């Protein structure tokens, strides 16, 4: 039996052209509806000739429309989960991902975003005065709940970021286990920093450096446009680079998916070891069979176990100590710390012109001692947070190294429940699947 190509499901080019044309028309229609919408309350007129600036962010949704967004999210998660677990159809998942790209991406302009909701939830936990909107909580929790039951079906066909990257994934290449393990540490760093900055009320770095929301809103800065373009260009050869090596929400989905109740399987029946699915996954998320139960001696296994027990705590403490040494550098993002540094530079160098922040502060009449006191408190928070962040990253590195030292016995080709995006590409490679379809027909 000959080995199929990279993508056994081939969509005719005419169909793709019609699809992209319809997608473009729908996007432009939605945008013109917002532009031509009648303003309910007229803008105030100023005698001084003041012109009210146009807002760059989308307006807040009303209560009813916010509920509609949540309902559409629930329906989308349910439909994609059904397509993945029951229908096992790559083609239908692909078409539904286009709907998600249009609605959650271009129409809703990437907001509310499950990825950015990490920061809102974190701030709500550490700041009792901040009230997290119920829709933000829903967009944060619902994908995790469905992942716990059905795997990462949110990534498969609901997330607009993943859908946009799937459109350009023409010639994906494998990176290898070592490169995937190294680059796979970046999302943990990103998640840790996002939580640290949100907990200290410093910044929402996920929203600030989001590569695709600016494209959805047609207002991306030149730098973010280049960043998004680089991701999409690299996505031609490296499937879903943002989802695999940047997305912080993917870390949470990875953890939860490992305990999923039902998960996508390559074959609907027993694996016949045909090896046709071996190169089917562009995300390197298929675990190969390991048929040797115990290839090592008992003494070698004992030494490896002791090494792992020493390795994980060592990297945990080393990470915490290393990151705590740079807590002042990390704290410079905070506005209070940044203002304190500006005041110190201005006082030490009288010839240096004052920044607008320093001028504004001096005109407020606020005592400098209070600013120094607030900045000192923030630095203490960053010191504690840096220790936690470093221990977390060190623990991840230690567990990653320990996992690579352990050989897990398995007899079949199975998707890795943590890294698998449930895209169902591998399903089309299985001859058992095709035989079952033929019998059904």
Report on the structure:
There is one protein chain. The chain is mainly alpha-helical. The chain has two domains: 15-28 and 64-290 and 417-440, no CATH class; 298-405, no CATH class. The protein is 60% helix and 1% strand. It has 20 helices and two strands. The chain has helices at 13-35, 63-87, 90-107, 117-126, 134-150, 153-157, 160-166, 177-183, 186-199, 205-208, 213-216, 222-234, 241-245, 249-257, 298-324, 327-331, 335-348, 356-364, 368-405, 431-440; strands at 286-287, 414-415. A two-stranded antiparallel ribbon has the order 1-2. Mean pLDDT is 83; it is low at 1-10, 27-48 and 54-58.
What would you say about this model in short?
This protein has about 450 residues and is mainly α.
Q: Cα-atom Rg, whole angstroms?
A: 25 Å
Helix content: 55-70%
Share in β-strands: under 5%
Largest sheet: 2 strands, antiparallel
Q: In what order do the strands lie side by side in the largest sheet?
A: 1-2
Q: How many β-strand stretches?
A: 2
Number of separate helices: 20
Q: Overall 3D geometry? A: globular
What order do the helices and strands follow?
A: HHHHHHHHHHHHHHEHHHHHEH
Instruction: Report the span from N to C terminus.
Output: 22 Å
Q: What is the count of structural domains?
A: 2
- Low-confidence spans: 1-10, 27-48, 54-58
Structural class call reads: mainly alpha
Q: How confident overall, as mean pLDDT?
A: 83
């Amino acid at each position: 039996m000959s080995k199929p190509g990279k993508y056994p499901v081939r969509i005719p080019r005419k169909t793709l052209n019609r699809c992209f044309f319809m997608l473009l028309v729908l996007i432009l229609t939605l945008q013109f509806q917002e532009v031509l919408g009648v303003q309910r309350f007229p803008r105030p007129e100023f005698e001084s000739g003041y012109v009210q600036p146009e807002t760059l962010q989308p307006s807040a949704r009303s209560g009813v429309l916010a509920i509609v967004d949540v309902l559409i999210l629930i329906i989308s998660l349910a439909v994609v989960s059904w397509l993945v677990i029951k229908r096992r159809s790559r083609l239908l998942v692909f078409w539904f991902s286009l709907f998600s790209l249009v609605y959650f991406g271009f129409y809703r302009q990437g907001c509310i975003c499950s990825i950015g909701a990490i920061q809102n939830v974190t701030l709500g936990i550490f700041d009792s005065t901040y009230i997290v909107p119920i829709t933000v909580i829903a967009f944060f929790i619902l994908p995790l709940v469905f992942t716990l039951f059905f795997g990462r079906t949110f990534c498969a066909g609901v997330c607009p970021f993943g859908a946009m990257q799937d459109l350009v994934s023409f010639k994906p290449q494998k990176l290898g286990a070592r490169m995937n393990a190294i680059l796979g540490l970046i999302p943990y760093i990103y998640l840790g920093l996002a939580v640290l900055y949100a907990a200290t009320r410093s910044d929402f770095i996920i929203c600030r450096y989001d590569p695709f929301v600016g494209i959805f809103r047609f207002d991306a800065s030149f730098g973010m446009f280049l960043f998004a373009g680089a991701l999409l260009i690299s996505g031609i050869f490296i499937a879903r680079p943002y989802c695999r090596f940047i997305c912080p929400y993917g870390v949470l989905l990875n953890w939860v998916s490992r305990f999923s109740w039902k998960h996508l399987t390559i074959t609907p029946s027993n694996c016949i070891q045909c090896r046709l699915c071996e190169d089917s996954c562009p995300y390197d998320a298929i675990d190969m069979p390991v048929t040797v139960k115990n290839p090592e001696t008992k003494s070698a296994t004992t030494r490896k176990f002791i090494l792992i027990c020493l390795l994980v705590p060592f990297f945990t403490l080393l990470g915490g100590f290393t990151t705590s040494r740079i807590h002042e550098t990390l704290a410079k993002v905070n506005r209070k710390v940044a203002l304190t540094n500006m005041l110190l530079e201005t006082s030490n160098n009288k010839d240096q012109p004052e920044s607008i922040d320093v001028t504004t502060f001096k005109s407020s009449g606020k005592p400098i001692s209070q600013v120094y006191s607030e900045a000192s408190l923030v630095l203490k928070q960053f010191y504690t947070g840096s220790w936690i962040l470093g221990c977390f990253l060190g623990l991840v590195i230690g567990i990653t190294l320990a996992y690579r030292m352990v050989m897990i016995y398995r007899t079949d080709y199975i998707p890795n429940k943590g890294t698998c995006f449930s895209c169902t590409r591998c399903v089309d490679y299985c001859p058992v699947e095709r035989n079952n379809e033929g019998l059904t027909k």
